[in-house]
Design a protein that fits this description.
Layout: E1 2-6, H1 11-21, E2 26-29, H2 47-62, E3 65-75, H3 96-106, E4 116-126, E5 132-143, E6 159-161, H4 173-179, H5 181-191, H6 193-199
Parallel strand pairs: 1-2, 1-3
Antiparallel strand pairs: 3-4, 4-5, 5-6
Helix pairs in contact: 4-5
The chain binds ligand CZF and magnesium ion (MG).
EC number: 3.6.1.66
Keywords: Hydrolase, Magnesium, Metal-binding, Nucleotide metabolism, Nucleotide-binding
Subunit structure: Homodimer.
Length: about 200
Amino acid sequence: MNAVVLATRNKGKIREFSEMLQNFQLNVLGLDDFPEIGEIEETGVTFEANARIKASEVAKATGLVAIADDSGLEVDALDGAPGVFSARFSAPNPTDEKNNALLLEKLQGVPYEKRTARFRCVMLAYAPDGQELCADGSWEGHIAEQPEGDNGFGYDPLFVDSISGKHSACLSRDEKNARSHRGKALRKLLEDWPFFWGRVKHS
Ligand SMILES: O=c1[nH]c(=O)c2ncn([C@@H]3O[C@H](COP(=O)(O)OP(=O)(O)OP(=O)(O)O)[C@@H](O)[C@H]3O)c2[nH]1
Ligand SMILES: [Mg+2]
Protein backbone atom coordinates (compact mmCIF):
# COMPACT_ATOMS: atom_id res chain seq x y z
CA MET A 1 0.00 0.00 0.00
CA ASN A 2 1.21 3.55 -0.69
CA ALA A 3 2.72 5.07 2.46
CA VAL A 4 2.69 8.80 3.17
CA VAL A 5 3.64 10.72 6.28
CA LEU A 6 1.69 13.69 7.64
CA ALA A 7 4.16 16.46 8.50
CA THR A 8 2.20 17.93 11.41
CA ARG A 9 2.12 17.73 15.19
CA ASN A 10 -1.32 19.33 15.48
CA LYS A 11 -3.69 16.66 16.82
CA GLY A 12 -6.78 18.44 15.43
CA LYS A 13 -5.32 18.41 11.93
CA ILE A 14 -4.22 14.77 12.23
CA ARG A 15 -7.78 13.79 13.23
CA GLU A 16 -9.32 15.70 10.30
CA PHE A 17 -6.79 14.27 7.81
CA SER A 18 -7.42 10.73 9.08
CA GLU A 19 -11.21 11.13 8.79
CA MET A 20 -10.97 12.45 5.24
CA LEU A 21 -8.38 9.92 4.05
CA GLN A 22 -10.00 6.82 5.53
CA ASN A 23 -11.41 5.58 2.21
CA PHE A 24 -8.17 6.08 0.30
CA GLN A 25 -5.69 3.30 -0.31
CA LEU A 26 -3.00 5.09 1.67
CA ASN A 27 -1.02 3.95 4.69
CA VAL A 28 -0.94 7.24 6.61
CA LEU A 29 1.98 7.60 9.04
CA GLY A 30 2.53 10.50 11.44
CA LEU A 31 5.47 12.23 13.08
CA ASP A 32 4.94 10.00 16.14
CA ASP A 33 6.30 7.21 13.93
CA PHE A 34 9.52 9.23 13.48
CA PRO A 35 10.45 10.53 16.96
CA GLU A 36 13.93 11.48 15.71
CA ILE A 37 12.41 14.40 13.73
CA GLY A 38 12.58 17.49 15.95
CA GLU A 39 10.68 20.76 15.91
CA ILE A 40 10.53 22.29 12.42
CA GLU A 41 10.93 26.07 12.35
CA GLU A 42 8.34 27.86 10.23
CA THR A 43 10.46 30.68 8.86
CA GLY A 44 8.33 31.38 5.76
CA VAL A 45 6.14 34.45 5.35
CA THR A 46 3.45 32.65 3.34
CA PHE A 47 1.35 29.55 4.00
CA GLU A 48 2.85 27.97 0.89
CA ALA A 49 6.46 28.59 1.97
CA ASN A 50 5.81 27.10 5.41
CA ALA A 51 3.98 24.09 3.97
CA ARG A 52 7.00 23.47 1.70
CA ILE A 53 9.46 23.80 4.63
CA LYS A 54 7.51 21.26 6.72
CA ALA A 55 6.83 18.76 3.91
CA SER A 56 10.32 18.86 2.38
CA GLU A 57 12.08 18.45 5.72
CA VAL A 58 9.96 15.40 6.62
CA ALA A 59 10.23 13.86 3.13
CA LYS A 60 14.03 14.15 3.21
CA ALA A 61 14.26 12.75 6.76
CA THR A 62 11.95 9.76 6.12
CA GLY A 63 12.47 8.94 2.43
CA LEU A 64 8.65 8.99 2.07
CA VAL A 65 6.20 11.35 0.42
CA ALA A 66 5.21 13.87 3.11
CA ILE A 67 2.06 15.99 3.23
CA ALA A 68 2.08 19.26 5.19
CA ASP A 69 -0.67 21.74 5.88
CA ASP A 70 0.08 25.34 6.72
CA SER A 71 -3.06 27.15 7.67
CA GLY A 72 -4.42 30.06 9.62
CA LEU A 73 -7.05 32.68 10.17
CA GLU A 74 -7.10 36.02 8.32
CA VAL A 75 -9.20 38.71 10.00
CA ASP A 76 -10.03 41.70 7.79
CA ALA A 77 -10.31 44.22 10.67
CA LEU A 78 -6.76 43.19 11.70
CA ASP A 79 -5.33 43.57 8.17
CA GLY A 80 -5.13 39.80 7.70
CA ALA A 81 -3.62 38.94 11.12
CA PRO A 82 -2.95 36.50 12.68
CA GLY A 83 -2.36 34.79 9.27
CA VAL A 84 0.78 32.64 9.21
CA PHE A 85 1.23 33.44 12.93
CA SER A 86 -2.16 31.93 13.90
CA ALA A 87 -0.65 29.11 15.98
CA ARG A 88 1.81 31.55 17.62
CA PHE A 89 -0.54 34.56 18.01
CA SER A 90 -0.24 34.69 21.82
CA ALA A 91 3.50 33.85 21.90
CA PRO A 92 5.51 33.12 24.03
CA ASN A 93 3.81 29.90 25.24
CA PRO A 94 0.77 30.15 22.95
CA THR A 95 -2.32 27.99 23.54
CA ASP A 96 -5.65 27.85 21.69
CA GLU A 97 -7.35 29.49 24.72
CA LYS A 98 -4.85 32.37 24.85
CA ASN A 99 -5.04 32.84 21.06
CA ASN A 100 -8.84 33.08 21.21
CA ALA A 101 -8.72 35.51 24.16
CA LEU A 102 -6.21 37.74 22.34
CA LEU A 103 -8.34 37.72 19.18
CA LEU A 104 -11.42 38.84 21.16
CA GLU A 105 -9.37 41.57 22.86
CA LYS A 106 -8.07 42.92 19.54
CA LEU A 107 -11.59 42.97 18.08
CA GLN A 108 -13.21 44.70 21.04
CA GLY A 109 -15.64 47.35 19.78
CA VAL A 110 -15.59 46.07 16.17
CA PRO A 111 -19.21 45.50 15.05
CA TYR A 112 -20.26 42.08 13.73
CA GLU A 113 -20.52 43.16 10.09
CA LYS A 114 -16.87 44.26 10.18
CA ARG A 115 -15.64 41.04 11.83
CA THR A 116 -15.25 39.20 8.52
CA ALA A 117 -12.54 36.55 8.35
CA ARG A 118 -11.43 33.44 6.53
CA PHE A 119 -9.46 30.33 7.25
CA ARG A 120 -6.87 29.53 4.64
CA CYS A 121 -4.95 26.33 4.07
CA VAL A 122 -2.12 25.47 1.72
CA MET A 123 -1.47 21.75 1.51
CA LEU A 124 1.69 20.49 -0.08
CA ALA A 125 2.90 16.97 -0.84
CA TYR A 126 6.67 16.67 -1.25
CA ALA A 127 8.52 13.61 -2.54
CA PRO A 128 12.12 12.74 -1.56
CA ASP A 129 13.08 13.25 -5.24
CA GLY A 130 12.01 16.91 -4.97
CA GLN A 131 8.70 16.74 -6.83
CA GLU A 132 5.76 18.47 -5.22
CA LEU A 133 2.02 18.90 -5.48
CA CYS A 134 0.25 21.89 -3.94
CA ALA A 135 -3.39 22.86 -3.39
CA ASP A 136 -5.20 25.51 -1.37
CA GLY A 137 -8.57 26.12 0.18
CA SER A 138 -10.37 28.89 2.04
CA TRP A 139 -13.47 29.20 4.21
CA GLU A 140 -15.32 32.50 4.70
CA GLY A 141 -16.93 33.55 7.96
CA HIS A 142 -17.11 36.01 10.85
CA ILE A 143 -15.51 36.22 14.29
CA ALA A 144 -18.14 35.98 17.02
CA GLU A 145 -18.08 37.96 20.26
CA GLN A 146 -18.45 34.84 22.42
CA PRO A 147 -17.04 31.34 21.95
CA GLU A 148 -19.48 28.48 21.35
CA GLY A 149 -19.12 24.72 20.84
CA ASP A 150 -16.66 22.00 21.82
CA ASN A 151 -15.75 20.43 18.50
CA GLY A 152 -12.67 21.12 16.38
CA PHE A 153 -9.62 23.01 17.63
CA GLY A 154 -7.88 26.39 17.44
CA TYR A 155 -10.23 29.27 16.68
CA ASP A 156 -13.22 27.02 15.89
CA PRO A 157 -15.27 28.24 18.91
CA LEU A 158 -15.09 31.85 17.58
CA PHE A 159 -15.33 31.27 13.82
CA VAL A 160 -18.87 31.52 12.42
CA ASP A 161 -19.42 29.75 9.10
CA SER A 162 -20.95 32.22 6.62
CA ILE A 163 -23.30 29.64 5.08
CA SER A 164 -24.88 27.96 8.11
CA GLY A 165 -24.35 30.81 10.61
CA LYS A 166 -23.04 28.19 13.05
CA HIS A 167 -19.83 28.41 15.04
CA SER A 168 -17.31 26.01 13.54
CA ALA A 169 -16.96 24.24 16.92
CA CYS A 170 -20.72 23.43 16.73
CA LEU A 171 -20.42 21.70 13.34
CA SER A 172 -20.18 17.92 13.19
CA ARG A 173 -16.89 16.48 11.94
CA ASP A 174 -18.42 15.72 8.54
CA GLU A 175 -19.97 19.20 8.26
CA LYS A 176 -16.64 20.89 9.07
CA ASN A 177 -14.67 18.69 6.67
CA ALA A 178 -17.21 19.39 3.90
CA ARG A 179 -16.86 23.18 4.26
CA SER A 180 -13.44 23.82 5.67
CA HIS A 181 -10.32 25.27 4.08
CA ARG A 182 -8.53 21.97 4.91
CA GLY A 183 -11.25 19.81 3.37
CA LYS A 184 -11.22 21.87 0.17
CA ALA A 185 -7.42 21.82 -0.11
CA LEU A 186 -7.22 18.08 0.53
CA ARG A 187 -9.92 17.25 -2.03
CA LYS A 188 -8.07 19.34 -4.64
CA LEU A 189 -4.77 17.65 -3.77
CA LEU A 190 -6.33 14.21 -4.12
CA GLU A 191 -7.72 15.03 -7.58
CA ASP A 192 -4.15 15.29 -8.91
CA TRP A 193 -2.75 12.62 -6.61
CA PRO A 194 -2.65 9.68 -9.10
CA PHE A 195 -0.70 11.77 -11.62
CA PHE A 196 1.72 13.03 -8.92
CA TRP A 197 2.23 9.55 -7.45
CA GLY A 198 2.91 8.12 -10.91
CA ARG A 199 5.66 10.68 -11.60
CA VAL A 200 7.44 10.26 -8.24
CA LYS A 201 10.53 8.03 -8.09
CA HIS A 202 9.81 5.41 -5.43
CA SER A 203 12.86 3.80 -3.83
O1 LIG B 1 -10.15 26.97 14.56
C1 LIG B 1 -9.38 26.53 13.73
N1 LIG B 1 -9.83 25.60 12.86
C2 LIG B 1 -9.10 25.12 11.85
O2 LIG B 1 -9.56 24.28 11.07
C3 LIG B 1 -7.78 25.64 11.75
N2 LIG B 1 -6.81 25.42 10.88
C4 LIG B 1 -5.78 26.19 11.27
N3 LIG B 1 -6.10 26.90 12.37
C5 LIG B 1 -5.25 27.84 13.13
O3 LIG B 1 -4.06 28.05 12.42
C6 LIG B 1 -2.96 27.41 13.06
C7 LIG B 1 -2.18 26.63 12.05
O4 LIG B 1 -0.79 26.86 12.16
P1 LIG B 1 0.15 25.79 11.51
O5 LIG B 1 -0.33 25.50 10.12
O6 LIG B 1 1.56 26.18 11.68
O7 LIG B 1 -0.17 24.48 12.36
P2 LIG B 1 0.32 24.05 13.79
O8 LIG B 1 1.52 24.85 14.21
O9 LIG B 1 -0.84 24.05 14.71
O10 LIG B 1 0.77 22.53 13.53
P3 LIG B 1 1.87 22.03 12.43
O11 LIG B 1 1.07 21.45 11.30
O12 LIG B 1 2.67 23.22 12.00
O13 LIG B 1 2.69 20.99 13.14
C8 LIG B 1 -3.59 26.45 14.06
O14 LIG B 1 -2.74 26.16 15.15
C9 LIG B 1 -4.83 27.20 14.45
O15 LIG B 1 -4.51 28.21 15.36
C10 LIG B 1 -7.33 26.57 12.69
N4 LIG B 1 -8.11 27.00 13.69
MG1 LIG C 1 2.97 25.17 12.90
